[in-house]
Design a protein that fits this description.
single chain; mainly beta; outer membrane lipoprotein receptor (LolB), chain A; Phosphorylase Kinase, domain 1; 2 domains; twelve-stranded antiparallel beta sheet; seven-stranded antiparallel beta sheet; 5 helices; 15% helix
């Protein structure tokens, strides 16, 4: 009787049982058409590791949307990829950057959908079962196609009981984790509105990849000037009751971008300056042609946000606000 009990107890860990579980998980994952989740992301950086909390939506085979929830300094940044083009949005700037013909996108290791694509295209796949935070999980491992020393292998941790993805990890050639994505409240095949991937329905902004958040905010314009490659223009006319909020220098694609924000009485005002350069993408300029005295500029609106943009030498200047058009135009005229 004791021998029979031991045999029955060990049956759930038999090779046949493990293979059956693998087939069930494989079927569940390959049947994925869309998913949504909150994702806690860890990225190994050159200086300090980055920690982000995001919201993800994905539509097979390669469309996605990623919104940053934390840290606060990046809150609201939204990245949208439609399979060939990528847009990035940051709310308080309301600036469009479009990158085309990306193959593959740099942040694909943050999404389960791309792991599943690789899983279906490789024969070098292996799986095992382990204990993970008190539960039995299955770990699926496979190489990264065309991998580099920073992205050599990847593995997915799946809960054996619920069949839900738990963690996606990327490893370098030394076996060190370079990216970890923890999936929270994962939803299989939710109905996603087409607006999730529609560039016309989403405001887009500048790239924040690779910037050092600890060194980009300043308490004064004098401090910020020391980190710029150009002399910044200044607001000589600020609406009554407005106070300065953020003074920031952002590094993107080898360029430094100056951001200065004001707010008051429920309104906002942002001044952005950057070197006029189209490397890495096209800064989209559209709107109505106006004149700030003798300076040509473009005026545009999106919902309750208004923007005036123009060029001073080789510096692109953008003034974004919720203020009325007339007030915003007067402020733009005062910038020298």
């Amino acid at each position: 009787m004791l021998l029979l009990i031991l045999v029955l107890a060990g049956k759930g860990c038999s090779p046949n049982s493990e293979e059956k579980t693998y087939k069930a998980i494989h079927q569940k994952l390959t049947g994925l058409e869309t998913y949504s989740c909150t994702a806690q992301i860890y990225v190994k950086g050159n200086k300090e590791p980055g920690q982000f909390r995001t919201k993800q939506w994905f539509c097979m085979p390669d469309r996605y949307r990623l919104e940053v929830l934390e840290p606060q300094s990046m809150q609201g940044k939204t990245t949208v990829y439609d399979g060939s083009r990528l847009w990035v949005y940051y709310p308080y700037i309301d600036q469009v950057l479009l990158l085309e013909d990306l193959e593959p996108p740099e942040d694909q290791n943050l999404f389960l959908g791309f792991f599943l694509r690789d899983m279906l295209e490789t024969e070098s796949i292996h799986y095992s079962f382990e204990e993970w935070n008190g539960a039995t999980v299955m770990i699926i491992g496979l190489p990264v196609p065309g991998g580099s020393k920073y992205r050599s292998a990847q593995r997915l941790v799946v809960d054996r009981k619920s069949l839900r993805p738990l963690v996606l990890e990327m490893y370098d050639i030394n076996g060190t984790v370079t990216t970890r994505v923890e999936f929270l409240d994962f939803q299989f095949n939710p109905e996603l509105d087409s607006d999730f991937f529609d560039s016309d329905k989403i405001g887009m902004s500048m790239l924040y990849e690779g910037w050092d958040a600890s060194g980009m905010f300043f308490s004064s314009l004098e401090e910020a000037r020391e980190h710029l490659d150009f002399p910044p223009l200044e607001l000589s006319s600020v609406p009554e009751g407005f106070t300065r909020g953020i003074i920031q220098v952002v590094e993107s694609d080898g360029r430094r971008i100056f951001v200065e924000t004001y707010s008051g009485d429920g309104e906002s005002l942002t001044l952005l300056q950057k070197t006029a350069d189209k490397r890495g993408g096209e800064w989209l300029t559209s709107g109505e042609l106006i004149y700030l005295d003798d300076r040509p500029a473009f005026y545009s609106e999106r919902q309750h946000t208004r923007k005036i943009s123009w060029t001073e030498g080789n510096i692109r200047v953008e003034l974004v606000s919720s203020l009325a058009r007339r007030a915003l135009t007067e402020i733009a005229r005062s910038i020298k």
